[in-house]
Amino acid sequence: MSTLAYVALGSALGAPARYLLDRIIQSRREGVFPWGTWAINISGCFALGLLVGLAQGHVVDARLMAAAATGFLGSYTTFSTFTWETMRLVEDGAFVEALLNITVSAVLGVAAAAGGLFLGAVW
């Protein structure tokens, strides 16, 4: 199977996973903060860091990286939704929530990726 097929397979699983998890999280939360997108992006950062760490130790082969990192996580995480939801917060006058979304997403995203990378490297 070609690398493109692995990416397509991973993508076909990542987008529905994102949609379902977002709906589950948002249905349990009140308020304007986009908790679903936030949880998806942070968990995706951690998972990508973990995969890269494992790949550096040659625990993950190239086909699995293509399917999981590029395919699944590429369609699971969503910068465009994060950006749109942040702009929606600004338009609604929820400036504190918008700033919190930007700051916490960036800081925790990098921390989650670093944590995943560390765990993958020592695995």
Word description of this protein:
- The chain is built from five helices and no strands.
- It has helices at 3-27, 35-56, 62-76, 79-91, 95-122.
- Helix 1 (3-27) packs parallel to helix 3, helix 2 (35-56) runs antiparallel to helix 3 and helix 2 (35-56) runs parallel beside helix 5 (95-122).
Question: Which terms would index this structure?
Answer:
84% helix, 123 residues, mainly alpha, single chain, 5 helices
Short précis:
By secondary structure, the chain is mostly helical. The protein has one domain (3-122).
Shape: globular
Radius of gyration of CA atoms, rounded to a whole number:
16 Å
How much strand?
under 5%
Mean pLDDT: 96
Which stretches of 5+ consecutive residues score pLDDT under 50?
none
The H/E string reads: HHHHH
Helix content: over 70%
What's the structural domain tally?
1
Spatial gap, N to C terminus = 28 Å
Instruction: Characterize the biggest β-sheet.
Output: none
Structural class call reads: mainly alpha
Count of beta strands: 0
**Count of helical regions:** 5
What is this structure's SSE topology?
Elements: H1 3-27, H2 35-56, H3 62-76, H4 79-91, H5 95-122
Helix pairs in contact: 1-2, 1-3, 2-3, 2-5, 4-5
